[in-house]
Amino acid sequence: MTELARGPIVVIGAGIVGLACATYLQRDGRKVVMLDPAGPGEGASYGNAGGLNGSSIVPVAMPGVLSKVPHWLLDPEGPLSIRLRYLPQLLPWLYRFVRAGRPDLVREQARALRALLAPTVDMHRELAASVGAADLIQRSGLLVVYRSEASFAADAEANSLRAANGVKIDELGKDELRQIEPALSSAYTRARFISENGYVRNPLRLSRSLAEALVANGGELRRERAQGFAFADGKVAAVLTSAGPIPAAAVVLAAGAHSKPLAAQLGEKVPLDTERGYHAMIRAPEVAPRLPIMDAEAKFVATPMEEGLRMAGTVEFAGLDAPPDWRRARVLLRHGRAMFPGLPRAVAEDRVALWMGFRPSMPDSLPVIGPTRRYPNAFLAFGHGHVGLIGAPMTGRAITDLVAGRAPAIDLKPFRAARFG
Ligand SMILES: Cc1cc2nc3c(=O)[nH]c(=O)nc-3n(C[C@H](O)[C@H](O)[C@H](O)COP(=O)(O)OP(=O)(O)OC[C@H]3O[C@@H](n4cnc5c(N)ncnc54)[C@H](O)[C@@H]3O)c2cc1C
Predict the structure, then answer these.
(1) What is the gyration radius of the CA atoms in the chain, in angstroms?
(2) Ligand 1 nearest-atom number relative to CA 303
(3) The ligand 1 atom nearest the CA atom of 383
């Protein structure tokens, strides 16, 4: 028995990434202890758009994005906002973001993301079925809709990057679009349909189902915050929490946007920040699209969730501490009405739920997945930005392989913490 095999593996953070790691580790015969001061899946993993898009391989810092930023920032209904007070803190991240947008780097990032994300629907299906929640995963395809030929054409470069990585995309005209989704506004004139994609009908229920199964199978879920580590013989010996130390044979850091200070304690300085996002959800909606629909210009996704129609998106740079700006979520409600004329102008407040969450974002749109350089039994699994739900299963599998000393199924070099020096 190796040193690693003897004690529990402590997973810090019970978001979808930590839960996927914990589930595969448990299947591999490990005793798992999960730590989270909140309930499972109540962070970013709660309110996302539910998209399982293996096609989401285009990094945010795509060439050409920067030229759109001033226009987006000036538009109060636009998809991007930066709180001025946060700008000085954000500058080093923005600098790296701009540098990550070099065309050759973007091609490499897309290739790495494709390996991480492509099997998402199949892997989620298997995971959800194993915890009695198979109904949550739908392979519906994704519809991306455009209001003009110009915006359709503007997306061509991103789509050729997708095609180059094996994503099949069907281009649709107005009539075909209307046939697929009659509830859509007639203002949309073009669309792209990506059939391999799917979605989770209730991301919170998925996390809760995984957590319940983990506990039922002998894992532990403790409502405690990891505060630091104890080290012995060049390894992590325990995770320190407010309730005392928890001995660890190995530790997996999956605390989403909150991972940075703990990663630093493990010897890895990473430029992790947060792109905050919002959703507005209408319960018992008047329209029921049968698949997720992304508005390419307004940059939001409308998803037919189990509990209502969810409009999710926007990027807000304001750090982890500033209060939510609920106007951003209300904008999504207006966007939803513009997408579906069948929605009423005023929806009763008791049918509307607003939410804000913290995407854990790296400047090059790639998560950090892999071992730390200093401690052989400390592993990192955070920074998934816009694609954490999509990438969670492959991340969990890769971390489990690393813990077991096996070669992971995908090349983890692009995801190493060391890429930032
Ligand atoms: C509006 C919006 C739409 C999105 N749409 C999609 C989409 O369609 N598809 C997709 O794949 N992704 C989407 N995302 C991104 C996705 O939600 C995230 O990438 C993903 O949820 C990150 O998962 P995580 O487990 O890393 O983080 P989280 O879900 O945030 O989990 C981290 C957990 O760590 C816990 N934690 C923090 N500090 C500590 C500590 N010190 N000790 C212990 N626990 C700690 C937190 O309480 C939290 O529960 C979207 C995000 C937003 C905001």
Answers:
(1) 21
(2) 8
(3) 26
